[in-house]
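Q: I'm building a small set of examples for a reading group on sequence design. Run inverse folding on the following structure and report the sequence directly after it, with nothing in between.
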């Protein structure tokens, strides 16, 4: 039976994107059910019965419902190991998970001032970054440059889902014309060309 992915109706959630990419990479059959976050449909009692967090993404696999994007991707990776979403080497895998957790728990000023509709609806903003967002941007670029200092195409050797998450965060800055080192721009661009990522980027979207 096809799995069901609950997604935001405008397809701008970076967390839904991460799960979409994992399902697509693994060529798993799945359907998408949209939830209109603009009207708070995620707080409807019916959705709360399905989604413990009342957020998207939530994945339904048979009678099992799971929220939190990184938990979903790890679940998929254990249930359907091929192709893997994380490096096989333990320390590289830990690094990929660290990056995922870091991107989800930090960089709030960037997320607020450079929201994902600026990427997926190609509507860059002209407001300069606040001092807090500039500091977050410096931290992000320093960390990403350090992680990619090996000169390879991916964060942790082989491609992993953390590359998608990092490219998304960098693109928040890049598409809005904020300063990002050229090596990171090239990295984000290459990651963005991945067919599974393009499958999300090119989705038909409702008007903003
Ligand atoms: N940590 C969660 C974050 C999920 C999240 O923040 N989803 C947003 C959309 S991007 C949402 O559902 N917002 C609605 C709300 O919180 O009311 C994950 O990784 O899945």
């Amino acid at each position: 039976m096809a799995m069901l992915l609950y997604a935001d109706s405008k397809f701008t959630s970076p967390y839904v994107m991460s799960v979409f990419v994992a399902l697509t990479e693994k060529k798993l059959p799945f359907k998408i059910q949209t939830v209109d976050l603009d009207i708070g449909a995620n707080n409807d009692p019916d959705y709360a019965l399905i989604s413990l967090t009342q957020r998207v993404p939530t994945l339904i696999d048979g009678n099992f419902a799971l929220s939190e994007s990184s938990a979903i991707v790890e679940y998929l990776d254990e249930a359907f190991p091929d192709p893997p979403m994380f490096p096989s080497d333990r320390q590289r895998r830990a690094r990929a998970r660290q990056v995922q957790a870091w991107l989800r728990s930090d960089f709030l000023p960037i997320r607020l001032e450079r929201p994902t509709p600026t990427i997926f609806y190609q509507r860059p903003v002209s407001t300069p970054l606040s001092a807090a967002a500039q500091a977050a941007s410096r931290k992000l670029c320093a960390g990403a440059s350090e992680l990619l200092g090996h000169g390879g195409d991916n964060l942790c050797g082989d491609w992993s889902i953390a590359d998608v998450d990092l490219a998304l965060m960098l693109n928040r800055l890049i598409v809005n014309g904020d300063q990002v080192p050229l090596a990171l721009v090239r990295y984000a661009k290459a990651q963005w060309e991945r067919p599974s990522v393009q499958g999300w980027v090119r989705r038909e979207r409702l008007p903003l």
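The two ends are 33 Å apart (CA to CA).
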